[in-house]
C-alpha cells in the first residue's frame, strides 16, 4: 500500500503528465462541491473546480477538465502548463475522457484519469478517485507555486526602466545595442554569484562607463540604491 501511494505521488509529480478530469463526477461525489451545486447552481460549482485545477497546474503538465453538455470551451497557459476546459456535447463526458486517455496512450504520454466512475477506464492510463484527487488538489494549492526568478533579460530591462523612471538615465540613450550589451553583462555578473551589494556596484560602474548616469556626484547613492533594490526585489 505504501509503495502504491509513493508510486502515485511520483506519477503526479511528472512534468509531462496529462490530467483528465471527469468534472461533474468530481463535483457530485465531493460533499463540499455537491452542496455548492445544490445551493448555488452548477455554474458556481464548475467555477470552483476549474479554479482549484488552475491553482494546481505545474510546468509542462496538460490538464483537461471535461463537463457533460454544452458550454464555452477554453484553454489557457498556467504556470508553464496548460489548462483546457471541454464540454462534451454531442458526446458524453465519459466518451471524451476516454478519447483523451487513448490519445495520451498513443503518444506514450503519462496520463491520469480522475473519476470515481468505474466505467471510465483506459488501458495504459493511471486512475484516481475523486476523494483522493481533492486531497491532492488542496495540497498543491496549500504548497503553492515557487516564484519564478526573472530572466537576465527581464532583470536588465527592469533596472534600466527604474533608472529612467528616477531620471538617472535618459531613455533616448538606451538603444537596443546598449540594452543587449547590458543584459549580456548581467548574465556575466550573475555567473559570478556576487552579493546584491557587490553586483549593484559592478552594474553602476559598468553603466557609468557607458552612459551619463545622474546624479554625478551621487552622495545619496541614488543610482546604487535603485539598482540594489531591483536586484533584491525583482518584478
Please outline what is shown here:
By secondary structure, the chain is an alpha/beta fold. The protein has helices spanning 2-12, 23-29, 31-40, 42-56, 93-106, 130-143, 152-165, 176-191, 196-208, 222-232, and strands at residues 18-22, 62-67, 74-78, 81-87, 111-114, 126-128.
Structure description:
The protein contains ten helices and six strands; from the N terminus they run H-E-H-H-H-E-E-E-H-E-E-H-H-H-H-H. With 235 residues, it is α/β, with parallel strands linked by helices. Helix content is 53%, strand content 13%. Strands 3-4-2-1-5-6 form a six-stranded mixed β-sheet, sandwiched between helices. The radius of gyration is 25 Å and the shape is elongated. The two termini are 44 Å apart. Helix 7 packs across helix 8 and helix 8 runs antiparallel to helix 9 (196-208). It has two domains: 2-143, Rossmann fold, CATH 3.40.50; 152-232, no CATH class.
Mean pLDDT equals 86
| N-to-C SSE string, H for helix and E for strand | HEHHHEEEHEEHHHHH
The CATH architecture category of the largest domain equals 3-Layer(aba) Sandwich
Kindly identify the CATH topology of the largest domain: Rossmann fold
Oligomer: single chain
Q: Give, in spatial order, the strands making up the sheet with the most strands.
A: 3-4-2-1-5-6
Q: How many strands appear in the DSSP assignment?
A: 6
The dominant shape is elongated
Please describe the biggest sheet, giving its number of strands, its sense, and whether it closes into a barrel: 6 strands, mixed
Q: Roughly how many Å is the radius of gyration? A: 25 Å
Structural class: alpha/beta
Distance between the termini: 44 Å
